[in-house]
Amino acid sequence: MALRTHVLLVHGMGRTPLSMWRLASSLRRAGLTPELFAYATAWQSVDGILRRLQARLTVMAAGDYVVVGHSLGGLLLRAAVAGLPSDVRPPRRIIMIGTPNHSPRLARRFERFWWYRLMNGDAGDLLASESRIARIPPPSIPCTVIAGTRGISGPWSPFGPEQNDGMVSVNETRLDGTEEWIALPLRHPFMMNDRRVRALVRDRCVERTT
Fold first, then answer.
1. Strand order from edge to edge, sheet including 33-37
2. Which of 53, 120, 142, 208 is 20 to 30 A (C-alpha) from 155?
3. The pLDDT of residue 40
4. Range of the domain at 17
C-alpha cells in the first residue's frame, strides 16, 4: 500500500494555524496527511523559527511530502528548505500563497512604527529588508506561486497601478520566472480558503513526478 503524502502547512504573519484549518480539511478529504506548524513573530526570531521548521522537515523527509505556506509562511518555508542539510531530502514541491518573494512595500512603509516592530519582531524586519530576502536562494525544487489580484489599484492605492491582493503586489510574489505562477482575483487574508486555491493545492500535492 502506498504511503500517504504529508503536507506541512505554515500560516502567515499575525495569524495562527487555525487560519489553515479549512485547507487542511480539504487535503485530508483528498487522502493526504496535513500537518500544521505554529510560530509567533512577536517573540521568536526568524532563525529560531527556521531551526524548528527544518527539524520538522527532517522528520517528514522519511516519506513523500509537500510544503505549503501562506504569506510569510511561504517565505519561511523557502528559507528553511534552502538551508536543509545535503543528506535531508527536500519536499517534492513548495507552494506559496500570497507570499512576498521581494520586500513588500507595505512592510517598508510600516517598519518605522513601534507597533509594527512590537507585533512582528525579527520577521517584520525580514519583510522590510530587500537585502535579507535576496539572500534566500530561489527554490531548487518545483515551486508554485499563487498571487491575488483583487486589491485596490489606482491613484489612491499604495500600489499605484499595480495589481495586488491588498497586502502584496503581484510583482512582489514573483521569483526568477522558473516557478509555476498563477494569479487569481483574491484578497490576501483568506486566499488559502478559496475553493480554487484549495483545488490547486490539492492537485499539486496529489500529483507524482515520474
1. 33-37, 6-10, 65-70, 94-97, 143-148, 180-184
2. 120
3. 95
4. 6-67+74-80+90-164+181-206
31 in any annotated domain:
yes
- Hey, is 7 helix, strand or coil? strand
Q: For residue range 142-197, list pLDDT tens digits in order.
A: 999 999 999 999 988 999 999 999 999 999 999 988 899 999 999 999 999 999 99
To the nearest 10°, report the CA torsion of 190, 133, 44, 193. Answer: 10
Asked if residue 173 belongs to a domain, the reply is: no
The total number of structural domains that make up the chain: 1
* CA dihedral for 38, 98, 175, 101, sign (positive or negative): negative
pLDDT for 29 equals 96
Could you tell me if residue 169 is inside a domain?
A: no
Given a cut of 50, is residue 209 above it in pLDDT? no
